Queue: 2 jobs
Job 1
Amino acid sequence: MTAVDALSPSDIDAWADDTDGPVALHLKQKLLPVEGDGGVIFPPTYADIGYNIDELNDGTKVAAIDSVGAQANRIEPIFKHPPYRQLVPQIEILYGNEKLVTIFDAGHRLGDALIRCVKADEASGFDLREAARDAFTLLLDANDASAIAKLAPTSLVFGAWDSRDTQAKLPRIVQSVIRAWDVDVLRRSAQYSPPIDYAALDVFSDEEKAKQEGDPKSPLAKRGFVHVPAGHALGGIVAAGPIERDVTVNLIALRRLNGGNAQALRRYVLGLSLVAATAPLDPFLRQGCLLVPDDAVPARWTVIDRQGGRRAVALTADLALAHAEAAAAAFGVGPGRRLTFDKARAREDARKADKKSRAE
């Protein structure tokens, strides 16, 4: 059995501080359907292609179960809740009939359109749109990420691209993806049967029933009045090989962060990255895809050095949280805000996009 090295706080700090230190941390975690080995699972479906399945040179097929972006969108919202909530600024935006959305729910984080469509706070004078633009500009002009870390530090953890404004790009420090290996695609069929015979009750004629029954696009079928078969639809996959989650923490990208107290900044972002990487995975990915860790194959974290050497380490969620709490206290977490969506700003931004499209 491979030895697993214990970690001290100084070991973790060195990952952020040592410019000649390791290049990455990696977790390979085997997952299983709750039904067990060989259980049917449902990957995501995409327009035009259905499941995203690639065939390798040896003929085996690999299915994407959860993409990098999807995993980031599942992990990031943990920062809305204890015990992670106090580690980051809570930016909440009211919209509609007192509904609430947070920056952790915005797919493009600090570069999301929502950030540009928020009213300035009259009491404090704080303007999220301008603060985000200034933070991105500081990064572009001075390679200074400190303003982003005070405003929206998960944008440094999961990456962001201000593609509609400054064009600033932040690489992902934490990347997670789930794939299933050596898969076979299944098909399924179904039949909808109405609970009563509506034609017999003169809701419509037997002729109309005969004409529209069996056609899922017909008006009566769409409304559920006639029998509708659904045949040979995608029915999930079975994996003969493993279902694996790969999580990578890019320590090179982390150590390229600069600005202010660079050491405190890097340790803070590292703490958030380790929390994100070690937090338990929500096993319910979608209907028909409920995955849990395989307790017969323990997941292990590995540190990879510059020469490719690999060392197993005992990195746990508790250890990551303890480091993140200490690093957050040293760096100073930015203030939380509760702001309001501004319809006028959204319309203004949309007009800009329309004007640019016409010019092109």
Job 2
Amino acid sequence: MSLLHIQDLRVCYGGIVALDGISFEVAEHEIVTLIGANGAGKSTTLRAIMGLVPMESGSISYHGDKINGLDTQKIVGKGIVLVPEGRRVFANLTTLENLKLGAYLQSDKEEIESNLNRVYELFPRLKERHWQMAGTLSGGEQQMLAVGRALMAAPKLIMMDEPSLGLAPLVVKEIFSIIRRINEAGVTVLLIEQNANVALKTANRGYVLETGRITMTGSGQQLLSDERIKVAYLGKSR
């Protein structure tokens, strides 16, 4: 069943077309990845879904209901969250304070506590460092904090923008292992990732974005073995 359905989405910035009528869908419990070069429109897609950039035309449906035109807070309330590129943690707040901010729409204290315990199970390091200022955490720990903060909203769909950016290979491996665990726990994942290799190995399905248009789609495995993908995104020569 389709959880998220994007139809003919068009977004322009000052006359420049960022997304030129793209259509795709994300089924419940899937991991779907969007891959493409810088400037292809990947981040714009996520920002449009969250209501952070205005659409020129098209529609975005979630559980069959149109969500385009809703403000971001209402979209979060429906169960969609975004882990932004570059972590964006609140450097002058503690790890725990950052996590609690993720639950700002929740009012049930028991539910908040339960979500916090789930986050600590996924990220034991955040529990160890709950007192530490977020700005003093390592890059990998800040990425874990950004994901944990998003999970505090108890989302049905989590969207991640470049979760591996600037991280060491071992930390990337750990982050992607956690993404799989989040998905296994029933959360649908829409992922943007410059590291096409790790993204396609993790995803059930992928879409290739090139200058605002979707040019290819297929299972993660199909795209990994496609010669055009190997040449364009996996660093293989012809």
